[in-house]
Amino acid sequence: MKEIKVFNNDLTEAYKNKLTEMIHNFDNYDGGVGNRNIIKIINIDGVNLNIKAFKIPNLINRVAYNFFRKSKAQRSFEYANKLTKMGVGTPKPIAFFEYKTHLVLVKVIILASKRIMI
User: Fold this and answer.
1) Domains parsed from the chain with CATH numbers
2) CA neighbours within 13 Å on the CB side: how many for 84?
3) Which residues of 44-75 are buried (b: 16+ CB within 10 A; e: fewer)?
4) pLDDT tens digit string along 26-51?
5) What is the pTM of this model?
C-alpha cells in the first residue's frame, strides 16, 4: 500500500516523524468512535490535535478518489489553508495522509490544531 503524506511547510522533520508515527498508531488511541468518520483529539508536544479519519467510501468512489477526484482530506487541508490566508478563523491544517493501492483509495486522515487560528 502506498502512503502519501503532505505537511504544512512550517514543521520540522522531527515533528513530521512524530505525526507519522502517531498516524501509524491511530487505531490504538482512545476515543473517536463513530458510524461515519472518526475524530480523535491527541496531544503531541503539549498541542492538542484534531485527527479525523474519513469513512472508507464505496468501491466506485474509492476508484474515483484514486484517479479523478481529490480526497476529502486533501480538499479539507487545501480549503483550511485558503481560509487561514483569508483571515477566516479555522483550525490550522497540519497535514493529511492518504493510503492507496494501485486501484483504490483505502484510507484518508487529516490533522489540524484544536485551536482556531485567525
Assistant:
1) 2-113 (3.30.200)
2) 17
3) eeeeebbbbbbeebeeeebeebbeeeebbbbe
4) 989 988 777 889 999 999 988 899 99
5) 0.88
